């Protein structure tokens, strides 16, 4: 039985329904200099422990997607309770694009050249293992080559179309 509200098309109803899932906010960073960019995802998860790999789903229309295919290295970091301003910048609020999104936060550069948020609760330096296109998105599989962890900074979550904080 079709439960799609009559005023909504299936893709819109799907997006609305997906906001009911609680997602941990992760930040993907890619590129350097004027080509630096990044985006917030709630689809970052572990894939394998041996070898260590992560998986994220990224819209192919995003400005980061072509950079991932070209650069083949990226940073993946969990956002903590204090990182809502970072999430807002990297999700395009205020119209910020590219390297301007990095302003207002402290970054460290890894051996592969990606920038990681200095105070992220956890962060990974990754190489692109594979990019699998499905629908509007690519499933990006990253092989972890370096790990950074900090003391517990809580977590930034996304639920019901809003950022939420999980802290001790």
Short recap of the structure:
This protein has three helices and twelve strands. The protein has 168 residues and is mainly beta. The chain has a seven-stranded antiparallel sheet with strand order 3-2-6-9-10-5-4, with helices on one face. A three-stranded antiparallel sheet has the order 1-11-12, with no helix packed on it. A two-stranded antiparallel ribbon has the order 7-8.
Please state roughly what percent of the residues sit in beta strands, choosing from under 5%, 5-15%, 15-25%, 25-35%, 35-45% or over 45%: 35-45%
Strand order of the largest sheet: 3-2-6-9-10-5-4
> What is the terminal separation in angstroms?
43 Å
| Strand and helix order | HEEEEEHEHEEEEEE
Helix content range: 10-25%
The description of the largest β-sheet is: 7 strands, antiparallel
Mean pLDDT: 91
Assembly status: single chain
Unreliably modeled segments: none
Give the count of helical stretches: 3
State the shape.
globular
Topology:
Layout: H1 10-18, E1 23-24, E2 26-30, E3 37-41, E4 45-49, E5 52-59, H2 65-71, E6 73-78, H3 84-90, E7 107-109, E8 115-117, E9 122-134, E10 137-149, E11 155-159, E12 162-166
Antiparallel strand pairs: 1-11, 2-3, 2-6, 4-5, 5-10, 6-9, 7-8, 9-10, 11-12
Can you describe what's shown?
The protein is mainly beta and 168 residues long. The protein has a seven-stranded antiparallel sheet with strand order 3-2-6-9-10-5-4, covered by helices on one side. A three-stranded antiparallel sheet has the order 1-11-12, with no helix packed on it. A two-stranded antiparallel sheet has the order 7-8. The N and C termini lie far apart (43 Å).
């Amino acid at each position: 039985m079709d439960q799609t509200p009559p005023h909504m098309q299936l893709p819109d109803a799907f997006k609305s329904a997906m906001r009911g899932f609680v997602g941990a906010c992760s930040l993907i960073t890619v590129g350097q200099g004027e080509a630096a960019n990044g985006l917030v995802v709630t689809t970052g998860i572990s894939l394998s422990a041996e070898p260590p790999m992560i998986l994220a789903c990224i819209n192919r229309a995003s400005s980061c997607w072509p950079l991932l295919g070209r650069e083949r290295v990226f940073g993946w970091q969990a956002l903590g309770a204090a990182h809502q301003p970072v999430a807002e910048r990297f999700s395009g609020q205020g119209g910020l694009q590219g390297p301007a999104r990095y302003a207002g936060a402290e970054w460290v550069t890894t051996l592969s050249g990606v920038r990681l948020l200095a105070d992220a609760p956890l962060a990974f330096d990754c190489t692109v293992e594979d990019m699998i296109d499905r629908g509007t998105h690519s499933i990006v599989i990253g092989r972890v080559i370096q790990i950074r962890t900090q003391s517990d900074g809580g977590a930034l979550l996304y639920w019901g179309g809003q950022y939420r904080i999980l802290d001790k």
